Amino acid sequence: MGDVSADCVTLDVLREARETVRGSPLGVVQTPLVPWSQTSLPPPPVPCSVHIKLENMQKTGSFKIRGVANQFARRPKGGHFVTMSAGNYGKAFAYASKHYGSKGKVVMPETAPLSRSTLIQSFGVEVERVPTSRLMDVVNHCVQNDHMIFLHSYDDLDLIAGHASLGLEVLEAVPEPDVVVVCCGGGGLLAGVAAAIRLSGFCRTRIYGVEPEGACTMYQSFLEERPVGMEAKSIASGLAPPSAGTLPYQLCRRHVDQIVLVSDEEIKTAVSALYRSGLVVEPSGAAAFAAIIAGDKIPEMAGKSVVCILSGGNMGKDELANFPD
Ligand SMILES: Cc1ncc(COP(=O)(O)O)c(C=O)c1O
């Protein structure tokens, strides 16, 4: 990350990114924010007013396109880009590469589903599948020997500023939320949304990040007061990168109240509850909702105005079979 620090993330930077995302030729959607009461979900565990932000309906099926739109707009046109992702970032990166006609390469773990490689290749992007332990070596080789430009999937100022557009949209619809609940993997989304809310002047809004118990790098980073890594494992693979991002960690320390943990069982229950109400949300995308329906994870929700982000919906019929009815 070089010398980029949390001080570089100002409201002006976020507002500019928001305009870039809004005007992006990638067609980023201003996703609906629906009141829970207008869905067929069973009532929340405590009486409160919850709004649900439907990023599962976003272009490419997740919020990642927001950050990607801002990254591509601020990198050299016609560059040759490389990234490391088996998930939603890779899909958004490939979509943008095709749109901009830029050359792209995605390095992914050889354990990722083959269907994911096929999808990314269908956008004209090269895929190299390597053992997980070699991912970074291969990326470094691409940068040093083939002069490619590395785009990080969560630890990048432009990406985080693009994700912040989601937070600014929330504030337009729910002007002063009491509680905002956001899932956390490397922390790019949480950092962007939290910065958008705090830098807009909402100091009393409580902001919670949600991680899986088996992939709690940001939770552990808060305890150790530095970004840490771990052998992360969860059904929510998008929330299980090997470490918390450095810039996300700094921003989350500054702007996030608390990281709470959910089990894989709680995530599965959330995916099923959402599906029964007609919402297809992947495990990573359902973690914030899982924390809310668990009842005792998010403190003092009663009577409050709560916002829950559903961050992605990329899940096939085959995967759905793993969830309880
Ligand atoms: C659906 C979904 N939600 C959340 C995340 C976590 O995002 P971040 O790494 O920015 O915390 C991801 C990451 O891939 C994702 O795919």
Automatic annotation (TrEMBL):
Q: Does the keyword Transmembrane apply?
A: no
Q: InterPro entries recorded for this chain?
A: Ser/Thr_Dehydratase, TrpB-like_PALP, TrpB-like_PALP_sf
At the top level of its lineage, which domain of life is listed? Eukaryota
Per the entry, which co-factors are needed? pyridoxal 5'-phosphate
Report keywords, A-Z.
Lyase, Pyridoxal phosphate
List, alphabetically, the SUPFAM superfamilies matched. Tryptophan synthase beta subunit-like PLP-dependent enzymes
**GO MF, one annotated term:** threonine deaminase activity
What's a GO biological-process term for it?
Answer: isoleucine biosynthetic process
Q: Where is the Tryptophan synthase beta chain-like PALP domain?
A: 27-312
Q: What is the name of the protein in this document?
A: L-serine deaminase
What broad taxonomic lineage does this protein's source fall under?
Answer: Eukaryota, Metazoa, Chordata, Craniata, Vertebrata
